[in-house]
Specification:
about 40% helix; homotetramer
Chain lengths: ~270, ~270, ~270, ~270
């Protein structure tokens, strides 16, 4: 065993940092709803990773239940590694509240601008959902071929960065680009970003995660249908209206609740990708 | 043959352990057949999930061995999470016997109407089998290209909800829709539901699960064959007759028994999807 | 605890069977080479299952090292579940030596007829290798696009059962059908069976397993190349001659040895398919 | 901040444990940088295997930090099995320093010739990245469709062995073939080898591994885009310039660091392929 002045100082630093960590009771004073929401947000990160919608990149946020001008988003970290301690609070200009020098996602402006423009939205997912990318770089529109993706009806708009900012790094790294993306999104649940990924929005985090997953699943089914050739029958907007009506339910065992329980269990399994 | 003191002791241990095993009759006052059937039904749920035929949605049932006007189906739950305690009994109007306020699958009418119309059927699977969906929304018929899916010969009919009920939520949520689906199914083992999934039926649960799995496998092979271009050689209905003749066997090691054992073991493995 | 006459008899049977099992030394008297070969054969079964070449169906054999008119093949069982105790011996008419009523593969005639016709072959794999099936039912020949599958040059012949036996169950269930298949195989390493699978042969079990795996891998690459459209550059038979020359080596770390070690480790991992 | 007796004890424990950790200098007489680099190189092997870029074949090297005319590469072994003890040193003629009769990769000349020609390169990956193979045997160029693969802009050159050495075993098994490959690579990050695989180079091992992985991911997306038909929008070289500018950062939580941490964790999981 060696004794090193620098090492002793590092150890002392550890001790002091440990004593400085909030003991959890501070965060709980915000109320049990906030804690439950943060747990759901962490779960959402893990689920999206486990389901292959996000990999090392991508992020998911929720609007703050107590203040519509704030949202909760993890510090910059791969979604599969996010824990409750990583969740940070931001304002709608993308500025971190109590940042404490933690790294932040450079594309947090996607979330900020959606929450500004969409009062109906309380959760946002940004991902590099792999099978939607081909639809973002070709002229074939992403349209729903399965009940579970009916919310995509009639079709998904594509945001092209070059239209608003010319040649860039193709990332939504400021409010202006975020606003432009949100304009293309309009009042819809999903928009693609050319050569980049998608943004998926919804009224709560569980339904938004379901939308993100079924958008990916639907993209795969549509890709296969296109390869078969010939006319394709899409889910009609009329059908979507009636299908969506049954989705708001939080009744145990039905719709989003049924799959959320399953995805939660799958996420606790060792990730096998 | 060798005689070994240690071996004799081991054998004695086996004998004693065997005598100590609960004989199962306590749980089987409904009869050992019913308990074994429920175990198979639970296994079927887990297997179909593990094999990627069902995900959070989908369900499998068996006709009640003691009453042809009843069937067994889980309470509404993702198939991968179903246990023996979840299995409920229903009549052929889809009404739960002893429901005890447990949530029920809204599409139990698929099962009910099949059992009404098909005296030859004792098991039913409804799934969103992913690779069959493209065949349900295009004009390319799902036909068998592999021995294991010969039962699909000559081709699989597609049920279009709009033909019977106009614009709906595209779910089989009542007897009338169930009857319409069963009419399209006719005397065949599989029918597709446009933009939704399929129904697979058979004389017992193990063969029906095999049919559901091999329908999905065959869909993938046919998709690939179509992408190669040119004429395709399908399994002929004549060949199917001869292949099916060898499928009824319950002889150990053959046909359905061989794969069922393997699928059972795979389902006990931590689900890696 | 209950006491049951039938149960006691069953336990006694277990005791007697246990005492009757060869204690391993009997089998070892055939020499350490045979034991090592049986271990490799069991490993081959597990590897082919783990790599997705076989699923519940399919089998692999080796020619008996001490008698060229015999071969070793498992009793009828899913390959992923085969153990050393399952390995049986057969003559070239497909008759089991010391069968002891164990179930046997109905298609053992594939192996028997190959060993009859091909003095250069000491291992045979029959599988439903999924991605080769599309090539067996279309007019697109399976040809090598990658170094590791160079042995497929110039192209793989397809056996059509209807040409030799009209409408059948499309299984090689007797010597006559086996002979017809072997005639199509000729002196090549692989032949497809239309709508069924393939047969892969080689000078030893490790190289034959490698051939079976890389045939599947190559089929996937070729399928993708065909979907890109346009002319395809295949591995030339001249290149194959030079590549094959380097494959016979058993030098540690090279060629087949390198991948065999890796496949062995992967097969010991919990199967995640 | 709260003060808790138990917390103080835990902190003390941390201090004592920290002091007890071996300081690594014993193994690092070559310097702590070399040990850290070797650890990264071993991790790179495991990560590339876990991500499906390499299987039993393929290898990754780094230029020696203390001598630009030397590089570090594992002894011949499947990448998923490489450990720190396998790492060997080579000169730029592909000759092993202190070989000790360990088997060496026959294609080490790929690495040697890249280091000779490219002063900007400090890491090299050679793989049989499966989805790039179709692009190596057809006339469809591999071009970037996603931000993460922008470095492929404008397109990836293909090395054809027959152009330099006629019919061969299609392996880069000497300096002359290595030089010819490097000439085709030019100043680019990736080149394909027809019917064989690719070579991926970069300024450090973490970025090079990321390039190798995202080349494979991009190939899959492009394959799907091509199957959709019609014009495709590629990442423009101008966009790549701006995207690459953000990649050099080693800032915690961003870019390569974020995904490297995730890939490291995935590689420690039991390989599920």
């Amino acid at each position: 065993m060696t004794c090193h002045p620098r090492r002793l100082l590092a150890s002392l630093a550890i001790v002091l940092a440990t004593l400085a960590i909030p003991d959890g009771r501070a965060a709980a004073q915000a109320g049990p709803d906030l804690k439950a929401l943060i747990d759901d947000l962490v779960a959402a990160n893990r689920i999206l990773y486990r389901q292959g919608v996000v990999d090392g990149f991508g992020h998911v946020s929720v609007r703050h239940p107590d203040n519509p001008n704030r949202f909760l988003l993890s510090a910059a970290k791969a979604p599969g590694r996010v824990t409750a301690e990583d969740i940070m609070e931001f304002d709608l200009d993308g500025k971190a509240i109590d940042g404490r020098d933690r790294p932040v996602y450079s594309e947090r402006f996607i979330h900020a601008e959606v929450y500004k423009a969409r009062a109906d939205v309380n959760a946002v997912v940004h991902s590099h959902s792999p099978t939607v990318i081909p639809f973002s770089v070709t002229k074939v529109p992403l349209r729903p071929v399965h009940n579970t993706a009916s919310f995509l009806a009639p079709e998904v708009p594509v945001f092209e960065m070059r239209n608003v900012a010319g040649m860039t790094n193709n990332l939504v790294t400021d409010s202006a680009r975020g606003k432009a993306l949100v304009e293309v999104l309009g009042d819809r649940p999903v928009a693609l970003l050319r050569g980049h990924g998608n943004v998926v929005v919804g009224p709560d985090v569980r339904r938004t995660v379901a939308r993100a997953i079924y958008t990916e699943v639907n993209a795969r089914m549509l890709l296969q249908a296109v390869s078969l050739g010939g006319p394709i029958t899409f889910i009609d907007p009329e059908e979507n209206k009636l299908i969506e009506a049954g989705r708001g339910t939080r009744v145990i065992g039905h719709s989003v609740d049924r799959v959320w329980q399953m995805w939660l269990e799958e996420a606790r399994v060792e990730p096998a990708r």
